[in-house]
Structure formats: C-alpha cells, structure tokens
Amino acid sequence: MTTQETVLHPAAIIEELKKNNFTHVVWLPDSETNFMYQLLTNEPTLDLVPVCREGETMAIAAGLWVGGMKPVVLIQNTGIFESGDSIRGLGLDINQPLVMLVGYRGWSRHGITTDSAARFIEHILHAWGISYYLIETDDDAGRITSALEEAERTNKPVAVLVGTEFGA
Amino acid sequence: MIGNTDAVKVLDSKRGNSVFVATMNANNVGFGLPSISSNDALDFPISGAMSKASSVGLGLALAQPDRKIMVLDGDGSLLMNLGTLVTLSNKAPKNMYHFLFNNGVYAVTGGQPIPGAGKVDWEDMAKGAGYAAVFSFDNLEDLTTGIDAVLASEGPVFIHLEITPEVEETPVAFRPRPRRSVQTAFRELPEALAKG
Fold first, then answer.
1. SS3 state of residue A61
2. CB nearest to A64's CB, from B21, B49, B63
3. pTM over 0.90
4. pLDDT (tens digit, 9 = 90+) per residue, A55-74?
C-alpha cells in the first residue's frame, strides 16, 4: 500500500531548495521531475533556467556560481551521460560545490533493472569520484541538504538521485 | 576579413568593467585576448569544456545583471552547442553580448574546415533563435565604427565577425600556456567582480 510517507512530492523538494537558499534551478524536464514544473514556475525565489541539452546546465551553473549565485542542476541520469565533458571540465576541474538533482530513470528496488540508464549511472558517478544520495520519499528530502553540505565541504559536485516519479 | 588580434583589440578598447568570457582563437595566448587584454582580472578563459563559453556567459549574465558580459565564441565551438542560441535568447539577459569569431576552421587542431563553412548563415540563425539584435562585420573599419552601436543595444546581442583564419601548427605540448588558467580565473573572478 502506498502511504503519504512513501511518496515523493515535488513540494518537499522545493521546500528543501528554498531552505538552503538556492537561487536558480537549471534544468531539462524529465518524467521523474515532471510535477515540479508548475510549482517551480510559481516559486518567486527560484529562477528557472530551461536548457536545450543537459551539458549546458553545468556551464550555466558554473557561470551563476562564479557570479555569486547558488544554482542547482535538475536533469535525468541520461543527461548526466550527455554532460560528461562539462562535468569533467567545469564542475570537477574548477572545484564547484554543485548539487545535481538527477532523475534516476529505470531505478527500482524490485526485480531486474533492465534500463541501461539505471544500470550505468552509479558506475559513472563512481568513476568520476562524485558522491551521491538517493531520495525516494518525502522523508528523504533532507538528503539535499546533506548533499549541499558535502559539496561545500569538498568543493565538488554531489549528485542526488531521485529514485521515484513524483506523486502529484 | 578581420584579423583575430585586431578584433579582440577593438572589443577590449570598449570593455569598461565588462567580463570577457573567451574561448579558442579569441583566447589564443599568442594572438588572442591574453596577448592584449587591458584588464585580465575580468577575463574569463573557457577551455576546459568545449563549446560552453556562451553557457558560462549566460550564467554570469544572469548573476551580474548590471554588468556587460561579452562572450568571445568560436564557430566550431558554437556548432557543438547550437542549442545555446535558444537557451540564451529564452532567458534574454539584456547585458549579454555574444561575439562569434567565424574563421571557418578548427584553428587549434590544424585548420580543418568546420561543417558548413561558408554555407551557414549565422546572422539568420541568431535572428531565428530570437536574439534581440544581430550585427555582422567583415572588415576592421566597420567594426571599429560600429562597435558603439553594438554595445548601446539591449541584449542579448549576437555579433558575427568574419575573422581571418590563423592556424596553430605547433604541437599542443609545445604551445605556450596561459598565465591565467581556467581554475585561476574561477578562483579570482569573484574578488574582481566585488571590486566593481
């Protein structure tokens, strides 16, 4: 049975972003974060920066950060693969404390994981030495704060894998 | 055609407190921005993530809305990140000036022609993407006399420059290194911005 506690609501994510004073959400929509869009567009403290391809997010976030803002990136795991050179050449090489919210397409705690996007993503993050946290319910939303604290402590990007599609 | 160094000199002469986000030949150590810059504390070289100078520039423009951000892009670079034209025009920062150094070649890898060299209409692409203003210059005199009108325009502005190709023949390992690396620029720029 699905209960309130086992659902991840977009409002829980947005509250966590507001609590940590993020200024910009640089994103490309995906099914895991679909329900966030309307809330984000109605949230005056978060400026939404939509992109055409995920690699742009890392570079825009780098510019925002060096200009004094506090961006968060929001893309799908497939977009992490596409963003490889930007994560390497910017996030990692410039020591940017960046939180990357990543839709974990294909993730399930049950059965066989057939989606290669899910099978590869953690290996890729390990290869880059990027730490990550998994969030699946509202109770996990505090891990965004944990990720930010780690990013700022280590001066590195840290990923937060969103392991479920949002409840409406 | 405009010489690479000449073009950079014209832009640098009008920079004021603008930030320059420069890549490829516009950022060449020998004949680009590092060779003539009048204020390298506000120069922001982008070499570590190919094609992303305009994206970094967009982030800076949104973060620093009261300061002009001048992106000095390459044609091969822009081809790798064409979606940036739409991303950028969608956010429409009024302080963004996107200069395209169009020399038709991959100058840092030996001068191979870029796809569509001589065929791509960059002005039409920028207009179609929704830039607020688009300019094009193919000689130094027009650039020199026209730059004030460019910088008086409200952004995002796209400026197409026809640049004489200058090809790097020296093996990469033997090319001079910039005094100021990308890492140094990221570390030092916040302090430079704070000074006004």
1. helix
2. B63
3. yes
4. 999 999 999 999 999 999 99
